[in-house]
């Protein structure tokens, strides 16, 4: 009964910088009739049959950016991350990871641009409320009382 449920991951990729605030990788989804300007988002993707959320996260990060991370470096953000859309329910496992590599290669069939955005500018660049909510949770876990 009800809408189909899509089990997925969302991962925020953070890179420390030596002399400035940390930066966060955002990927741009191309324009569509519904969203003419497209939108910025973190790494997202479905969990394949027989795959753990961590395995899906490692795979999606590599597929969407070319960055290689280890499952053990992923930090899970606890919580209930479920979003009710008109055609389906998205149930997310939420993660963040720190990387040192700055060069990114996007998958052109999914994204048409990428950027490292300063932590303080991320929220203002997000289109979806669900991404703003998950980013806020990542910040609390990652930075707590520490300045970004």
Describe this structure in words.
It contains three helices and seven strands. By secondary structure, the chain is of the alpha+beta class. Strands 1, 2, 3, 4, 5, 6 and 7 form a seven-stranded mixed β-sheet that branches. The longest helix is centred in the C-terminal third of the chain and has 15 residues, at 129-143.
Write the layout of secondary structure elements.
Blueprint: E1 5-15, E2 23-29, E3 39-41, E4 43-46, H1 53-65, E5 75-84, E6 89-99, E7 113-118, H2 122-125, H3 129-143
Parallel strand pairs: 1-6
Antiparallel strand pairs: 1-2, 1-4, 2-3, 2-7, 5-6
Main features:
148 residues; 3 helices; globular
Short description:
With 148 residues, this protein is an alpha+beta fold. It has helices spanning 53-65, 122-125, 129-143; strands at 5-15, 23-29, 39-41, 43-46, 75-84, 89-99, 113-118.
Structural class: alpha+beta
Supply Rg: 15 Å
- Distance linking N and C termini: 44 Å
Compressed to H and E, one letter per element, the order equals: EEEEHEEEHH
Mean pLDDT: 92
- The stretches of 5 or more residues where confidence is low (pLDDT under 50) are none
Number of helices: 3
Fraction in helix: 10-25%
**Shape, please?**
globular
